[in-house]
Amino acid sequence: MKSNQVSTEQIHLFLTGHGFPEKVDSAVILGSGLGDFTENLDEPESIPYSEIPGFPETSVQGHTGELFRGRLHGKEVIAFSGRFHHYEGHPFSRTVLPVHLAHVFEAEKLIISNAAGAINTRFSVGDLMVIDDIIRLFHGIAASPSEPFRYNLYPVADRVRALAAEIGLEVQRGTYIYLKGPNYESKAEIRAFRTLGADVVGMSTAPELSEASRLGIRTTAISLVTNMAAGVSAKKLDHSEVKEAAEARKEDFARLVSVLIEKL
Ligand SMILES: O=P(O)(O)O[C@H]1O[C@H](CO)[C@@H](O)[C@H]1O
Ligand SMILES: Nc1nc2[nH]cnc2c(=O)[nH]1
């Protein structure tokens, strides 16, 4: 079956026929290198994307391409270990497939995560940041022309930081600049983005946030700083840093997501 012939309702039917619950409390989209979060789920079960009708495959390193279900604090959770980026050749309508699935599973909460480069010189590799605003450059992502870009993150950012503090974690807050990629930025671009007010840069999340807001899903977005962006430090940029930084912070990332699932 071709992916565009399978509706999200049909995918939901397939998944409930394979042990997934009808409804979940939370859905989590895991960014580059952050897939190990699923090790924290109780009674986990998973299906590779390649076995789910209508699911595209992921091609980016650090995205295994597997859909998990399990429980955390007694709550039903689905977790997407691997997302679809526009630069991999997916149309925006497909990059938001996890959001549509969160919607058919009636998730009350969606937690989106990503690996990002820090533009803000006060940030460090390994910092966690709750996104409270988005800048999009060059690429519109709304479904129809002239539609305003809507998302509603402001009320949750303070609460996320307060919950993080309860478990001894410091979380930054800031603006994510979304670029289509696939290549990293030039030093001059990063300097320009700093003057625009961006704190971190990445190539995902904005389309998912926009769609989640359109569907009325309460959404939080978390960045893990995996590298200082081009020119911010003298270090040469490489995708392997993403994996290293995620590996170093995976426990704290999991603790943060876990407390958000429990209490947000
Ligand atoms: O946003 P996620 O999926 O975490 O991936 C981030 O890591 C990749 C770059 O190494 C880019 O795809 C960037 O967006
Ligand atoms: N565009 C972009 N994406 C990233 N993902 C992780 N780090 C980076 C970065 O520096 N730039």
Order of helices and strands: HEEEEHHEEHEHEHEH
**Through-space gap between termini:** 38 Å
Question: Main β-sheet: number of strands, strand sense, barrel status?
Answer: 5 strands, mixed, barrel
- What oligomeric state do the depicted chains represent? single chain
CATH C-level: Alpha Beta
Number of domains: 1
- Can you list the strand order of the major beta sheet? 5-8-7-6-9
CATH architecture: 3-Layer(aba) Sandwich
CATH topology: Rossmann fold
- Tell me the radius of gyration: 17 Å
Average predicted local confidence, pLDDT: 91
GO biological process, one term: nucleoside metabolic process
EC number: 2.4.2.1
GO molecular function: purine-nucleoside phosphorylase activity
Family: Belongs to the PNP/MTAP phosphorylase family.
Provide an overview of this structure:
The chain is an alpha/beta fold and 264 residues long. The chain has seven helices and nine strands. The chain has helices at 8-16, 92-95, 97-104, 154-166, 187-196, 206-214, 239-263, and strands spanning 26-30, 42-48, 66-72, 75-81, 109-118, 128-136, 172-178, 200-202, 218-228. Strands 5-8-7-6-9 form a five-stranded mixed barrel. Helix 5 links the parallel strand 7 (172-178) and strand 8 (200-202). Helix 3 packs parallel to helix 6. The protein is globular. Residues 115-117, 179, 181, 184-185, 201-203, 226-227, 229, 242 line the site of guanine.
